[in-house]
């Protein structure tokens, strides 16, 4: 009897494994929910819609983009962390969720390395330093001088951790003081800057581009160590006088921990194909981004490197966990 029970149990396990494999092979059999941690119209929304539209051609199922916006991205991260690990809920996340929060939040409800399965890197994103157009400021040096003449009187918008650390690095290097105003996303902060209720901020080029062209805001510099092909006239922060300044954010795609490898591989193949096309690469350049796909393993290593970098950046900027 014991041998029969053991044999039956082994058969059940084998059948279960075969069923799970068959289910994974059929993936996807329905639309996939793509969660973003920022508001509709944000850079993350633009990125997800673009790569999602192309990945749909490979997977033959649409992506339904759902915004779970918050300043820290914790709402979106928690939603995906708790989702069934079947590949039908994915997360487009970046430095805020996957690195910065470990050092900026005293209590974090998730672990960026433990609670998610990496799928693929999507973009590397330099930021643009912009000011409201009615200020008599046309360079980084003039912004620094203006701020030093008015200690604590200027304010700046914060839509995510990347924008926050970029400003803190500037404040620390230049020795200026200014007040931060937090928003649930950079799009909302940008509207306040355009309306004249904020003085400056670091923002994704995709969000700022139209307003820059309409001269509703003024761009001063880019945060990366190299100039942007989409805005070649803008100096880097280092070229503008802030020595050794270099900061970029990133976006990547993740699934809940425990998602089957076959499903992760299917998602990775679809997104790598979408990201690496010449049209996609050209589009990312127009948006002021660098399209960069990866294997799941490479993204896992990249996350570890980003966590180490953010630990250093937060310390360098003198930021404290809230």
Automatic annotation (TrEMBL):
UniProt organism field: Ottowia thiooxydans
SUPFAM superfamilies in alphabetical order: Periplasmic binding protein-like II (SSF53850)
Signal peptide boundaries: 1-22
The protein, known as: Tripartite-type tricarboxylate transporter receptor subunit TctC
Keywords: Receptor, Signal
Key word Signal present: yes
Family: Belongs to the UPF0065 (bug) family.
